[in-house]
Amino acid sequence: EEGLTVEAVARKVGYNSVEYFQRLFKKETGVTVQEYIIDTKLNISKDILKTYGKSFEEVAGLLGYSNYKTFAHAFKNKFGITPKQFMENM
After folding, report:
1. Which of 21, 50, 68, 75 would bridge 15 by S-S if both were Cys, CB 3.0 to 4.6 A apart?
2. pLDDT tens, 60-79?
3. Helices 33-52 and 68-79: crossing angle, nearest 10°?
């Protein structure tokens, strides 16, 4: 993932120790910080695709993915379909 990092999140919420923040986050939420970031980005991507009519490449870029292929792979891993299939099924 590019863009938002665990280190940036930890520092933003006041933790100097990234490792401590990661352990605490996992204990409290049941998922890693990375999993949470990816999950949130992918859920946002569905809203962007439905609402704003952006291209798949634009959505990938908006959410910090380096290219459409990386975005589509993550999307399919989470939802079981590609972004294109998601749009076709709307």
Report:
1. 21
2. 999 989 999 999 999 999 99
3. 100
pTM: 0.81
- Residue 45, amino acid: S
Q: Which two tokens stand for residue 81?
A: 């379909």
> Taking the CB of residue 67, how many other CB atoms lie within 10 A of it?
11
Alpha carbons 72 and 75: distance in angstroms, whole number: 5
Structure-token pair, residue 1: 């993932």
How many CB atoms within 10 Å of residue 51? Answer: 8
- CB-based contact 38:74 (threshold 8 Å): yes
Say how far apart CA 23 and CA 69 lie, in whole Å.
31
Euclidean distance between the first and final Cα of the chain, in Å? 27
Q: What is the pLDDT of residues 35-59, one digit of tens each?
A: 999 999 999 999 999 999 889 999 9
